[in-house]
Amino acid sequence: MKHVSFIVFLFFALVISQPAFAGNDWEWRHTTTIKAPLSEDLSINVNNMEWFKNDASEHYYHHVEVGIDWKVDGIIWGFYLREKESESSSGVWSWEHRPHLNATFKWNMGDIKLSDRSRLEYRIFAGDNKWRYRNFLKAVLPVKWTEYKITPYIGDEVFYDFDVDELNMNRLHLGISAKLTDSIKAGVKYTFESVKSGDNWTDKNIIWSDITYSF
Length: 215
Prior knowledge:
Layout: H1 2-16, E1 26-37, E2 42-53, E3 58-72, E4 75-87, E5 93-109, E6 112-125, E7 128-140, E8 151-161, E9 166-179, E10 184-197, E11 200-214
């Protein structure tokens, strides 16, 4: 229980240090993932993601992503290609092709499981290409509730845009994951997202759900 209290306190301390929950919009985002292990250290992964804005009433984003995760000497390397389509504020839909490379490190701090994922993305737009770096730090508590092994976690992801040479996005997460069956996992989290445009920051409140099928 003391671990739960600490993480909850840390999350709200981080949130209220920003204009917490003051975003103009609530969104719902959902991810469906299929994992096909080829060996103990190698798997093929496919995921589909959908985003809904304006209090989850308007669909404006989707992507399909395929890649492999390969564990080598304790590091999980990921090689992926994402095909994304999104709608702009003016109602125009456009494509982005996004190959990316990931490196994930995992370790324990006492009973708390920690992971740190670095991601380098090459974002290919119509007439423009950009590089972006992302770092996602996550802490999973040593708690498992009910027979579904419901586990709480907290995470934070920062985005560095090489095109403008600055950190211009941050996502703070508080969520739970559950093991529904031996091959199905699900989760839900609250995300406080801050995006910088020019000199201004815009905030969003997001409910993010996910389900993963393993074969």
